[in-house]
Amino acid sequence: MANTTSKEEVIFVLTVDTEEEWDWSDEFPNDNFSVSNIFEIPALQLFCQELGIKPTYFVDYAVANNPNAAAVLANINPTLCEIGAHLHPWANPPFFGLTSEESSHVVNLPIEQTQQKLKLLIEKIQDNIGATPRSFRTGRWGINGDILQLLITNDFDVDSSIYPFYSNEFFSCENAKISPYWPDFNKPNQESAQRKILEIPVTCGFNKNNYPLCQKIHRAMEQAPFTWIKANGLLWHSKLLRKIYLSPELCTAKDMIKLVDLSLKKKHKILHMYLHSSSLIEGITGLSQDKNARESICKKIQQVIEHTKQNANIKFCTISEAKKQLAQQQNTN
Ligand SMILES: [Zn+2]
Prior knowledge:
- This protein is of the alpha/beta class.
- It has helices at residues 41-51, 61-64, 67-74, 111-129, 145-153, 211-223, 226-237, 253-265, 293-311, 319-332; strands at residues 8-18, 56-59, 82-87, 135-138, 158-159, 198-199, 204-206, 243-245, 270-276, 312-316.
- It folds into two domains: 4-203 and 243-332, Glycoside hydrolase/deacetylase (TIM Barrel); 208-241, no CATH class.
- α1 (41-51) runs parallel beside α9 (293-311) and α6 (211-223) packs across α7.
């Protein structure tokens, strides 16, 4: 048996992108959103409460705007969860023409458009859920200095839009810090002296200890010709190299446990798990094809928590509670 007193303390945060469901391979819709997945949230919340987890729901406009879905979130005891904001440009008025692949990313919008959308999103969450969001995640990830400053103006003090080790044609989180940090407005992947908004990335890593080297190899494989891509698959299947996200919709419990062990070994202060609410129902988003999607996700979360408890003292926090703790720790260090 491990000795309780010698265990490290680690913060555990679960964030849930709380949003409509639809087939992501289709075009971006602007209305008639289906939010039936939200009715799985009371069961998820209850499950979390039993384990001690305090979920943070990053709520988007489609959910906040649906009276029945909003009521589900309004009915959760506010001391046992947090309501944050999540901006899907295609689902959040005012609209500025059809949404393209490019304009579906918040980072690509003119800041005036983001400002107008964010204003309506905050108002809708306040009116229909009765909460004022202080934490934020962009739709489709990615962040820049203009958005960070807009968030500060609107009283947000924690962002979680960095997707570690990921890049696409519009933004790159490749060299972003994987631990919480105060982002620079000019180079949001980097630490700065500002203390107004804290970035708390989701937990991601590799199944090998040397993350920078793993990232280099992984990247080289992704950019290499087809024969190399095959080699990358080979690396994955032979368990030599895996990129792992702490997300029960993307990874197995076994892989997540590996990631937890490496995070604890690296003395990381926080484990930040995430999922999409739409993964709580079967076969909608294409992320999870599991039968009994919610049960399957809960089972994985439980396995990860039980394993973590053997090796660390977990402090369960909402993301804003985690922000307070981490900011305090940094001030006293
Ligand atoms: Zn989303």
